[in-house]
Amino acid sequence: MRYLKRIAAIIPLMAALFVMGAINTQAQTRVRRVVVVQRPIFFHHFGFYDPFYDPYYYDPYLQAQREKYYLQEDVKDKRKDLAKHQEKYRSDGYLTPKEQEKLAKDQEKYNKAVRKLNDFDRSD
Questions:
Q1: Who has the most CB within 10 Å: 6, 8, 42, 114?
Q2: What is each CA distance from 13 to 24, 25, 118, in whole angstroms?
Q3: Where are the domains positioned within the chain?
Q4: Cα(118)–Cα(74) distance, integer angstroms
Q5: What's the average pLDDT block by block, 10 residues per block, for the chain (124 residues)?
């Protein structure tokens, strides 16, 4: 008698799960997906550009030069942001804790950009 209530509760749950599985299975077999893969083509005012024929794609020297340029630009941008925020926050002569936190975060971003550039330079 003790287990009769448990068995009576489990049997309808198992039946419900079986019915839900059967319903989901039918829905999955009816749908077919067609996947079409295309290369992106970007149109400009003078023609089109296909990134597959990008010279940087095949030439490791050009890839390295491009990556070095982007890392240098990132360092330059972070340095400008840090200088701009330092000038802005220190203009009144008092740094609030929030301003100190923002300056510390800017300094951390700058240091990270410099570290990435140095790591790239060492890897050459």
A1: 114
A2: 17, 18, 62
A3: 2-123
A4: 12
A5: 75 75 56 61 58 71 88 96 94 92 96 96 82
